[in-house]
Automatic annotation (TrEMBL):
This protein's name: Uncharacterized protein
Signal peptide start and end residues: 1-28
Family matches, as PANTHER family: DUF19 DOMAIN-CONTAINING PROTEIN (PTHR37431:SF3), PROTEIN CBG06927 (PTHR37431)
Low complexity composition-biased segments: 297-309
Species in which this protein is naturally found: Ridgeia piscesae (Tubeworm)
Region ranges (Disordered): 281-331
Segments passing through the bilayer: 210-232
Ranges of compositional bias, category Pro residues: 287-296
Keyword Mitochondrion included in the entry's annotation: no
Top-rank lineage group of the source organism: Eukaryota
Keywords attached to this entry: Membrane, Signal, Transmembrane, Transmembrane helix
Length: 351
């Protein structure tokens, strides 16, 4: 499987750390990243302009019409490929098709009515938090061992909350009709996936593996953050790994604590850092420690702390205090490591 995971330049780093999203399966003969990228070529000039907002982007009528025309070419190119893709990939493609059919054909004239209101920067800033909340909640579901039925219920609820969030934001800036237009766009895009997992209120069908659907819903919801700029989502697959197991085992997120005010303290006494999104805290970094092995090699078992006069109760962490008054010995150290004289420590050198 090919992996991807980002919303836009604004949040690409955080999202890539949190999730690796499965999009295409290379097991199918023709449904590969290479073949899809060939179809995506017309979109590559459109990358780099995403806002990270779920609200549809605003451009001139001519520019948006060009995007729609480019998508028609992409869809035509993709026709012979889609039958060879696995089901989850076909569902994602169907959602993308629905998005462009709604935006470019069914409701384009209505979009033009609301376009001026959709230009407001504050509207998009507010909309970003719908995405950030949604992606944070989804990330909490991963690798927790939840049952398929529990995952389905959580996904369905989170999607409804997301739709309500975006609708309320648009309504507060542009009115009820514009909000209904935006919700219609989001709903029609998500419909194939939510039908598949039988979300309440959606068309019922045979339940599926909710873990897989979780990945696909995450991908498609983030696609909505790009709006009509399809390439921002799909072209970013080029920089992701093809492995099925997720991110590199060494690419673990930092272990951090959060003070609630946008300030994060890394473990092991690293200095505090601020991560902001639009001038405000974007959400805490992961607070779960990396997956350390359950047991250490024998040579690392039961490490003995420093001992010595005046240092019977050492304090670990930031600024543990001044050096001890007597010689320091490390009980578990190899014999070739000589004790360190505290006077040398004070002088800034060792013997």
């Amino acid at each position: 499987m090919l992996l991807a995971g980002s919303v836009s330049r604004d949040v690409v780093t955080v999202v890539c750390v949190l999730l690796a999203v499965s999009v295409f399966a290379t097991t199918a003969t023709e449904c590969t990243q290479e073949t899809v990228n060939e179809c995506l070529e017309p979109f590559k000039t459109e990358t780099g302009n995403a806002t990270g907002s779920p609200i549809v982007p605003t451009r001139t009528e001519e520019e948006m019409q060009k995007v729609c025309n480019d998508y028609d070419n992409f869809a035509e190119c993709l026709k012979p490929i889609k039958p060879n893709c696995v089901e989850i990939d076909r569902l994602v493609f169907e959602g993308i098709d629905n998005y462009y059919d709604y935006f470019c054909d069914q409701k384009f004239d209505e979009y033009l009515k609301y376009r001026d209101c959709f230009k407001q920067g504050k509207l998009h800033e507010e909309g970003k938090y719908c995405n950030l909340t949604f992606t944070s909640r989804l990330s909490d579901l991963r690798d927790q061992g939840y049952s398929s039925s529990y995952l389905r219920d959580r996904i369905c609820q989170y999607v409804e909350d997301y739709l309500d969030c975006v609708e309320n934001v648009v309504s507060s800036f542009c009115g009820k009709e514009a909000a209904q237009w935006q919700r219609g766009l989001d709903v029609t895009s998500l419909e194939p996936l939510l039908n598949r997992i039988s979300c309440p209120g959606w068309q019922q069908s045979t339940p599926s593996n909710a873990v897989i659907i979780l990945i696909a819903v995450f991908f498609l919801l983030l696609l909505l953050a790009v709006g009509a700029l399809l390439a921002m989502k799909l072209c970013q697959m080029n920089s992701r790994s093809r492995r099925q197991t997720g991110p590199d085992e060494n690419a673990v997120p930092p272990y951090a604590s959060y003070d609630g005010n946008g300030v994060y303290m890394y473990a092991a006494g690293m200095p505090p850092v601020e991560y902001t999104q639009g001038g405000a805290a974007a959400g805490p970094l992961p607070t779960k420690a990396p997956p350390y092995p359950e047991s250490l090699p024998p040579e690392y078992e039961s490490p003995t702390p420093y001992s010595g006069p005046g240092y019977d109760n050492p304090v670990y962490g930031i600024n543990p205090g001044g050096p001890p008054t007597g010689p320091i010995t490390v009980a578990a150290a190899p014999s070739e490591v000589a004790p360190v004289d505290s006077a040398s420590v004070h002088a800034g050198s060792t013997k």
